C-alpha cells in the first residue's frame, strides 16, 4: 500500500492535488490512498510517528502559514521516515536553493499555478513508484539478522509473526510459527530493520500484519490474535491506524 500525504494551506490547490492523485491511482491501478489531506503540520507528524515504515509520498507546501514552514516540517518527517519521498509544491521556488541546508532528500520542487503542475506531479510520482517497485523486488527474500548467544541467526521476514519485549531487561522475544527466540535488543532499533508489513500495536510489541488472525476492539479488551494463536494487547493509541492500514491493504 502506497500512502500519499498532503499538507497544503491553500484549499483549492489542496483539492486539486487530491484529485490529481486519485486520478493517478486509478490510471495506474495502484494499491494506494490518501490517509492525510490537511493544512495542519501536526496531523502529518502524528501520521508519520505511527507509519514511518510505510511507503509514503509526501506532497508539501513550503509556506504553510503556521509556526513552522514546509522545510522544517520535512526535517521533522526525516527524524522518523528516512525513506519516504518528499515533493514540494510551492509558489516560492527560490527557496529550493536553500533546501539543501536542511539535508532532507527532496524528490522534486514543483511550481504552483502553472498549467503543467499535474504532469510535473505525475512525473515525480513515476520516479517514486519505480523506485518502490525496485525496492519490493529487492526485499522479497529479506531476512532479519540477530545474535543469540554466540550464534548469528537469519530469519526470513515472512516467517516472523511478532516481536515483543521480554520480562528480562534489554531483551526481546521473536515468534515464528514454530519457534520462540529470545535475544538482546530494543524494539525501537529492531523496528528500523523491518519493512512496512510490520506494525507496532503497543509500546512493547510489533507484529507482522500478514499474520493477523483476529483483531478485537472491545473497549476493555483490545487485542490482536496472531496465526500462532498468541494474544497481544492492542493499545488504544494504535487501534484506529491499524484498522485503517489493514482495510487499505486488502
UniProtKB/TrEMBL annotation:
HTH LytTR-type domain location: 144-248
Pfam families: LytTR (PF04397), Response_reg (PF00072)
Molecular function as annotated in GO: DNA binding; phosphorelay response regulator activity
InterPro entries noted in UniProt: CheY-like_superfamily, LytR-like, LytTR_DNA-bd_dom, Sig_transdc_resp-reg_receiver
Keywords assigned: Activator, Cytoplasm, Phosphoprotein, Two-component regulatory system
Positions of post-translational 4-aspartylphosphate modification: 61
Transmembrane segments: none
PROSITE patterns for this protein: HTH_LYTTR (PS50930), RESPONSE_REGULATORY (PS50110)
Signal sequence, start to end: none
Domain (Response regulatory) ranges: 3-127
SUPFAM superfamilies the record matches: CheY-like
Record flagged with keyword Transmembrane: no
Job of this protein: Required for high-level post-exponential phase expression of a series of secreted proteins.
Protein name in UniProt: Stage 0 sporulation protein A homolog
Annotated organism of origin: Maledivibacter halophilus
